[in-house]
Design a protein that fits this description.
Chain A has helices at residues 3-6, 24-38, 40-60. By secondary structure, chain A is mostly helical. The longest helix of chain A has 21 residues, at 40-60. Chain A is elongated and about 65 Å long. By secondary structure, chain B is mostly helical. Chain B has two domains: 8-93, Rna Polymerase Sigma Factor, Chain: A (Orthogonal Bundle), CATH 1.10.1740.10; 109-177, Winged helix-like DNA-binding domain superfamily/Winged helix DNA-binding domain (Arc Repressor Mutant, subunit A, Orthogonal Bundle). In chain B, helix 2 packs across helix 4. In chain B, 23% of the residues are buried. The A-B interface holds A 2-5, 7-12, 14, 17-22, 26-27, 29-31, 33-35, 37-38 and B 17, 20-21, 24-25, 28-30, 32-34, 36-37, 47-48, 50-52, 54-56, 58, 60, 63-65, 68-69, 72-74, 76-78, 80-81. Chain B: Residues 119-169 form the RNA polymerase sigma factor 70 region 4 type domain. Chain B: Belongs to the sigma-70 factor family. ECF subfamily. Chain B: InterPro entries: RNA_pol_sigma-70-like, RNA_pol_sigma-70_dom, RNA_pol_sigma70_r2, RNA_pol_sigma70_r4_t2, RNA_pol_sigma_r2, RNA_pol_sigma_r3/r4-like, WH-like_DNA-bd_sf. Chain B: Residues 23-91 form the RNA polymerase sigma-70 region domain.
Chain lengths: 61, 178
């Protein structure tokens, strides 16, 4: 059984936590981070494209 | 499709990315409070941990069983588990760093003072902004993201400054060698 299935049996006392809201900016930063982690390939392609562009620029200069 | 508290689990299962901002908006206050309880300190670690929690929810949503637990309880449990995992990792890292630190101190005790002096005099060759960024990044180990937000600039700007500074120092060092 996976750990995440086991966590279905965990009941925390949520009342002991006072919510600590994040600012809009922090929320956006986290969202961006999550999206990057969910699509690692997309970022790799972007980086590859950027590297090729930089190498090409060096070769031309 | 609009994501709501009732359909959020289904939307995550369908990999609707609109569920992500909904999760952050609705639950980040609670998840942040749980993380802060366990990870007292580095703000960047806390944000990274929260991002990891959301990624775990995204990839393991099929493990959630609505007949056994509330969604809020399940994600809170993931958060607690992740936060504890982070503490373990950072303790291991600290142990490793202190071991390396000790070894390095033993092997380079004589030359270390000179290196520090050389480093600070070398940094004086940089302009004010570059020096501050260099000290923060290379000496204090502050992540580039934090430096960028301090200067209200982009992450890429910090790396640009570091790259320019390195070039400058390289030229100076090469000159000295010749």
């Amino acid at each position: 059984m996976s750990l995440f299935k086991d966590l279905n049996d965990v009941k925390l006392d949520l009342s002991e936590f006072d919510e600590l809201p994040l600012s809009e900016y922090e929320q956006k930063r986290i969202l961006k981070d999550v999206r990057n982690k969910i699509h690692p390939k997309k970022q790799m392609k972007k980086r590859l494209g950027l590297s090729v562009a930089i190498i090409a620029a060096f070769m031309l200069s | 499709m609009r994501v709501t508290g009732e359909n959020v689990v289904r939307q995550i299962k369908l990999k609707n990315e609109e569920a992500l901002p909904f999760l952050i908006k609705t639950y980040s206050g609670l998840l942040n409070a749980i993380i802060r309880k366990y990870l007292n300190g580095n703000h960047q670690d806390m944000e990274e941990c929260l991002a990891d929690v959301l990624v775990s929810i995204w990839f393991h949503i099929d493990s959630y069983d609505s007949s056994k637990n509330e969604f809020k309880q399940w994600i809170a449990a993931i958060t607690k588990y992740r936060a504890i995992d982070y503490i373990r990792k950072s303790e291991k890292l600290k142990e490793h760093v202190s071991n390396v630190d000790f070894d390095e101190r033993m092997s380079s005790q004589v030359s270390s003072k000179q290196n520090v002096l050389d480093l600070s005099s070398l940094f004086n060759e940089l302009n004010d902004t570059e020096r501050k960024i260099f000290e923060k990044y290379y000496v204090e180990g502050v992540p580039s993201k934090e430096i960028a937000s301090e200067f209200q600039a982009k992450d890429s700007w910090v790396h640009n400054k570091l790259s320019m500074g390195r070039k400058k120092l390289k030229t100076i060092l090469l000159k000295d060698e010749v």
